Amino acid sequence: MAMAMHAKSDSEVTSVDQGLSPPRSPRRPVYFVQSPSNHDVEKMSYGSSPMGSPHHYYHCSPIHHSRESSTSRFSASLKNPRNPSAWKKIQKEPQSDDDCDDDDHEGGVFEGPCRRVRLYFFFVFLFLLLFTIFSLILWGASKSYEPKVFVKNLVFENFNIQAGNDHSGVPTDMLSLNSTVKLLYRNPATFFGVHVTATPFELHYYRLQLASGEMKKFYQPRKSQRAAVTVVLGHQVPLYGGISAIPSVRDHHEKVAIPMNLTFVMRSRAYILGRLVKSKFYTRVRCSVTLRGSKLGKPHNLTHSCIYH
């Protein structure tokens, strides 16, 4: 009887304890997120099912799955010290700039690749700027040393008018003329010489060209001068009645008086600093002279009969 009562009391105690203690929930399952492209399984979260259901694997849509897969791969690459490829890709570009900055700050003023490149371009630019300024100064200074041209005289050696035919067979008066022009050329420059050429020397009766000649080119050193002689010829030039005084004095050449104009352009070129800096000078000359049959072989003074511009 006593044993039954003791057993009863134990059962009662157990029932009382069960009634007093709260009901226990079943054991919570564990959830895993597995990346299909990575062989390593990373434990992402631990949780329990609110409904006390058996173990389940978490399934999601393809978009959500791809996002979490990329997140898990990125997290794994950051956590894994043996795979620093992600860090290399992120830090690749900023690292090069930081290197240049570190070289500039740590290496001083004249050290570091970036600093040397900048200094190189700076010195090249400075050299070009100074050279340009120096060249402009030389060019401007050369303009104050313009060469001087003076036509001294002109000599008509011979003069002849006769009847003839032109190249097409038209009969007309034909003129032949031989003359020489003497001029003085002066280079006043103190630091450069000049190369001198000229356009053809031409003798015109109004617009009718009667004679022409070429001057030989020459080089004139600094602070020097020379006299140049040019032959001006006209051979069998058809007149077509252009000179009204010719018929009346055809047989009396000593009575001939034909006004003419001598024109040419003197061109001077100075190479001041090689061919990099050069200066050009042009002098246009126009002289008035009268051909007189009575003064053949005698010089006609043209010192005050020429215009220079």
TrEMBL record:
<keyword id="KW-0472">Membrane</keyword>
<protein>
    <recommendedName>
        <fullName>Late embryogenesis abundant protein LEA-2 subgroup domain-containing protein</fullName>
    </recommendedName>
</protein>
<feature type="transmembrane region" description="Helical">
    <location>
        <begin position="119"/>
        <end position="141"/>
    </location>
</feature>
<keyword id="KW-0812">Transmembrane</keyword>
<feature type="region of interest" description="Disordered">
    <location>
        <begin position="71"/>
        <end position="105"/>
    </location>
</feature>
<dbReference type="InterPro" id="IPR055301">
    <property type="entry name" value="Lea14-like_2"/>
</dbReference>
<feature type="region of interest" description="Disordered">
    <location>
        <begin position="1"/>
        <end position="50"/>
    </location>
</feature>
<keyword id="KW-1133">Transmembrane helix</keyword>
<feature type="compositionally biased region" description="Acidic residues">
    <location>
        <begin position="96"/>
        <end position="105"/>
    </location>
</feature>
